[in-house]
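dumping this here so i dont lose it
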C-alpha cells in the first residue's frame, strides 16, 4: 500500500474511532429533546411595567436566579434556564409531568406582605359600597371569602425571612401549615408589631391574596409566624419552597408553553425509530441491489455518515462548554436531509464512474476521473446548503436552530464520507487487487428529451398550481397557521378507549368552549386534539375527567403560544428563510459567474416551497414550526439538485463550444436525468416511511417533504434550467 493511501486509511480510522468514542454510550452522550422524551418548555415574560426605571435593567437576571433556586429545590435535573432578549426567560424542564405544580412554583411571584386589618366597621361598609377610604384596600380572605379592609402599606415583607417549612397545626384536624422564621431584624420588627397591636387582626398576604388574617392575642418575640389555609401537604411544601428562596423581582406570565407528556414522547421515539429503520433499510437495500459493490460501499459511507453526525453532537459539549448535545424532531429532519445529500453524492459519483467506464477507461482511471468530475457539483451543493444552515442558526428560533446544527454536522460528514471514505475504500480494494470490474444495474438510459421546447407549458402549469394553492392558503386566513404562529392553546389527550367527538364537544360547551376545534386521528382513535384561543387547559382537563371518569385520561401534550410569541416566531422564521435564500443567491452567482444562474435557482427554490405550502393548504394542513423546518429542508434539497445540473452545463460549455445554450441545457438535463430520478426516488423512500409510520406529530413535516421533493425534481428540469436560457442571451456559461 502506497504511503498516500496509508495516510488516508489512518485518517478514516482515526475519525471513526473519535466518533465512536463520542457517540457511545448513546444515552449518556446525547440528550433527547423535550419533544421526544417529554417535559416542559416555557417562555416567560418578566413584567417590568411596575418597576422603577433603575430596577428594570437587571430584573430578568434576578428572576433567573430565583427561578433556578426554586427548580433546584424542586428536584428537576438537566434543566435549562436562559435569558432571551431583555425581559424574557426560557425554561426547559425535562421529564416534568406535573404541569400545574411546576408552573405554580416557577411563576408564583411569592411577594409576602403583612398588613394590618382595619377594625372600623363603618370604613368597611364604605369600602363595600365602592368608596374605599384613602390608604386602604379591600381584599377577600382565601379561607372563607370574608371581606377585609387592609392598610395599603405593608408593615413587614418577606425580605425579612430566613426560612419557611411545613408544620402541622395543633388542631384536631392536624392540618399542614407553613411556618415562617424571620432574621434578627425581622424578628425584632415582628415582635414589636405584635406587641403594639394586640387584639387587632394581621393579614398575611401572598401575591395580593389574603391567605389568613389571625387576631393577635399576644406579643410574639420569637419572630415566628405561620400561614394557614386549605393546603394539602404538597401545596404547603411548594409554598414553603418559594418563600425560602425569595420573591421574584416582578410578576411573570407565560408567553409560550410546550408540554410533552411521557406517553407522547415515548410514542414519538418509537414511531420515529420505526420510520427511520424502515426508511434506511429501503435506501440501503436499493443502493446495494442497484449499484452492487459500489452500492455496498455507499451504504458503508452512509452508516459512517450517521455515526459522524451522532459523534459530532456528542462532541458539542467538549468543543463548546455549556452547550448540550440534544436531539429533537427538527434535528432529525436535519439528519434526514444530510443523509439524502449523502445518498445524492454517492449516486453522483457512481454515475460518473459509470460514464467513464462506458467511455472505455480502465477501472482505476474511471474511479479517479469519476471522483474528480463529481467533486465540483458535490462541493458546490453542500457548501450552498452549509451557508443556508449557518444563516438559519443565526436568525432562527430554537427548533430551527436545532435543525441547523444537525444539518451543518451532517453536511460536513457527507462531504467527508462521499469524497474521502468511499474513495479510500475503492483505492484500497484496487491496491490489493480485490476488484477487477465494477458492474452496476441501469434503469434509466440515455434520453434525448427536448425539455427546453416544452418550457412554456410547464411555466403555465406551475403558475396555475401555485396560484390555486396560494388562493386557498389566503382564504384560510388565520386558520392556515398552527398555534406556533397564530397563537392560542392546543391540548392533546389520550383516552383508555376510543371516544366519539360529540360527547367531548358537549363537555366543552358546558364550560363555554363551544367554538373549540376538536380533532381525532385515524392512526390513533384514542387520542383527541383540542385547540382553543385562550388558556383553558386546567378547566378542560377537569371537565373531561368529570365527564369520562372511566377513561383514565392522560395529557399527551399542551402547547400554548401568546400573540406576542406567535408574532415573534413568525418573524424569526421568515427572517431565517429569507436570509438563507439571499445567502444561496450570492454564492451561486459567485460560483457560476452569472447572477442569472443564481436567480433561476432561487426562483425554482421558491417554486418548490410555494407548491408545498399550497398543497398543505389544499389538504387542510396547518403551517407550524415543523412545517417551516420542512420548507427549509425542501429548499436545501432543491438547490442541491439544481446545482448538479448547473455544474454539468458549466462542464459541457467548455467541451462543446459550438452548441447553443439551449442545446447545452437539454444535453445536461438528459445526462443528469437518471441521477436526478434515482436520488429523489431513493430519498422519497425515507419520506414515505416517515409519512406512513412517523405518527401524527411528524405527519405535516413528512407530507411537506413528499410534495416538495417531487416538486424539486420537476423544478430542476422544467423551471431552473429553462429560466437560465430565458435570462441569459450568451451562448454558454462561463
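and the seq i came up w/
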Amino acid at each position: 500500500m502506497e504511503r498516500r493511501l496509508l495516510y488516508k486509511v489512518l485518517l478514516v480510522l482515526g475519525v471513526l474511532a473519535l466518533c465512536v468514542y463520542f457517540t457511545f454510550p448513546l444515552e449518556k452522550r446525547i440528550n433527547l429533546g423535550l419533544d421526544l422524551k417529554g417535559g416542559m418548555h416555557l417562555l416567560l415574560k418578566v413584567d417590568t411595567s411596575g418597576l422603577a426605571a433603575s430596577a428594570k435593567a437587571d430584573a430578568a437576571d434576578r428572576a433567573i436566579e430565583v427561578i433556578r433556586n426554586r427548580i433546584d429545590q424542586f428536584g428537576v435535573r438537566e434543566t435549562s434556564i436562559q435569558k432571551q432578549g431583555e425581559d424574557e426567560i426560557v425554561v426547559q424542564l425535562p421529564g416534568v409531568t406535573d404541569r400545574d405544580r411546576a408552573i405554580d412554583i416557577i411563576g408564583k411571584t411569592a411577594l409576602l406582605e403583612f398588613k394590618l386589618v382595619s377594625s372600623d366597621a363603618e370604613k368597611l361598609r364604605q369600602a363595600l359600597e365602592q368608596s374605599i377610604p384613602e390608604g386602604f384596600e379591600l381584599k377577600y380572605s382565601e379561607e372563607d371569602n370574608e371581606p377585609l379592609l387592609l392598610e395599603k402599606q405593608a408593615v413587614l415583607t418577606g425580605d425579612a425571612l430566613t426560612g419557611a417549612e411545613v408544620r402541622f397545626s395543633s388542631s384536631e384536624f392536624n392540618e399542614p401549615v407553613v411556618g415562617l422564621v424571620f432574621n434578627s431584624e425581622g424578628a425584632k420588627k415582628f415582635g414589636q408589631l405584635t406587641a403594639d397591636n394586640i387584639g387587632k387582626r394581621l393579614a398575611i398576604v401572598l401575591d395580593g391574596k389574603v391567605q389568613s388574617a389571625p387576631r393577635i392575642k399576644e406579643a410574639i418575640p420569637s419572630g415566628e409566624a405561620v400561614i394557614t389555609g386549605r393546603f394539602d401537604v404538597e401545596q404547603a411544601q411548594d409554598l414553603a419552597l418559594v418563600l425560602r428562596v425569595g420573591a421574584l423581582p416582578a410578576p411573570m406570565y407565560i408567553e409560550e408553553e410546550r408540554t410533552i407528556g411521557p406517553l407522547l414522547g415515548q410514542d414519538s421515539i418509537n414511531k420515529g425509530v420505526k420510520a427511520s429503520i424502515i426508511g434506511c433499510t429501503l435506501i440501503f437495500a436499493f443502493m446495494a441491489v442497484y449499484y452492487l459493490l459500489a452500492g455496498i460501499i455507499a451504504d458503508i459511507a452512509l452508516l459512517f455518515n450517521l455515526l459522524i453526525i451522532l459523534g459530532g453532537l456528542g462532541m458539542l459539549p467538549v468543543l463548546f462548554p455549556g452547550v448540550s448535545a440534544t436531539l429533537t424532531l427538527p434535528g432529525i429532519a436535519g439528519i434526514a436531509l444530510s443523509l439524502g445529500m449523502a445518498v445524492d453524492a454517492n449516486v453522483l459519483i457512481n454515475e460518473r464512474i459509470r460514464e467513464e467506464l462506458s467511455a472505455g477507461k480502465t477501472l482505476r482511471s474511471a474511479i479517479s476521473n469519476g471522483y474528480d468530475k463529481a467533486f465540483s457539483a458535490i462541493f458546490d451543493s453542500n457548501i450552498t446548503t452549509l451557508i443556508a444552515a449557518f444563516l438559519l442558526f443565526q436568525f432562527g428560533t430554537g427548533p430551527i436552530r436545532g435543525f441547523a446544527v444537525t444539518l451543518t454536522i451532517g453536511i460536513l460528514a457527507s462531504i467527508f464520507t462521499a469524497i474521502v471514505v468511499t474513495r479510500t475504500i475503492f483505492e484500497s480494494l484496487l491496491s490489493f487487487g480485490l476488484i477487477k470490474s465494477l458492474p452496476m444495474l441501469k434503469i434509466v438510459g440515455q434520453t434525448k428529451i427536448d425539455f427546453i421546447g416544452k418550457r412554456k407549458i410547464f411555466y403555465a402549469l406551475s403558475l396555475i398550481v401555485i396560484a390555486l394553492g396560494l388562493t386557498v392558503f389566503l382564504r384560510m386566513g388565520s386558520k392556515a397557521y398552527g398555534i406556533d404562529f397564530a397563537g392560542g392553546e392546543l391540548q392533546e389527550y389520550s383516552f383508555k378507549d376510543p371516544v366519539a367527538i360529540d360527547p367531548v364537544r358537549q363537555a366543552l360547551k358546558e364550560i363555554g368552549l363551544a367554538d373549540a376545534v376538536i380533532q381525532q386521528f385515524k392512526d390513533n382513535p384514542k387520542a383527541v386534539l383540542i385547540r382553543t384561543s385562550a388558556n383553558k387547559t386546567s378547566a378542560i382537563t377537569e371537565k373531561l375527567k368529570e365527564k369520562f371518569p372511566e377513561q383514565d385520561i392522560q395529557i399527551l401534550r399542551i402547547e400554548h403560544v401568546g400573540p406576542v410569541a406567535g408574532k415573534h416566531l413568525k418573524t424569526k422564521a421568515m427572517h431565517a428563510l429569507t436570509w438563507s435564500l439571499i445567502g444561496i443567491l450570492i454564492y451561486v452567482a459567485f460560483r457560476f459567474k452569472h447572477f442569472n444562474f443564481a436567480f433561476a435557482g432561487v426562483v425554482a427554490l421558491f417554486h418548490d416551497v410555494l407548491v408545498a405550502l399550497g398543497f398543505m393548504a389544499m389538504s387542510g394542513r396547518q403551517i407550524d414550526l415543523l412545517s417551516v423546518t420542512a420548507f427549509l429542508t425542501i429548499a436545501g434539497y432543491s438547490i442541491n439538485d439544481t446545482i448538479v445540473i448547473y455544474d454539468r452545463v458549466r462542464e459541457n460549455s467548455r467541451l462543446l463550444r459550438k452548441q447553443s445554450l439551449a442545446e447545452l441545457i437539454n444535453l445536461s438535463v438528459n445526462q443528469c436525468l437518471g441521477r436526478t430520478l434515482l436520488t429523489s426516488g431513493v430519498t422519497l423512500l425515507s419520506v414515505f416511511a416517515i409519512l406512513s409510520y412517523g405518527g401524527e406529530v411528524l405527519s405535516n413535516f413528512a407530507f411537506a417533504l413528499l410534495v416538495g421533493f417531487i416538486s424539486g425534481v420537476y423544478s430542476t428540469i422544467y423551471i431552473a434550467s429553462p429560466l437560465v436560457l430565458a435570462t441569459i442571451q450568451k451562448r454558454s456559461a462561463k
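Confidence is low (pLDDT under 50) at residues 730-734.
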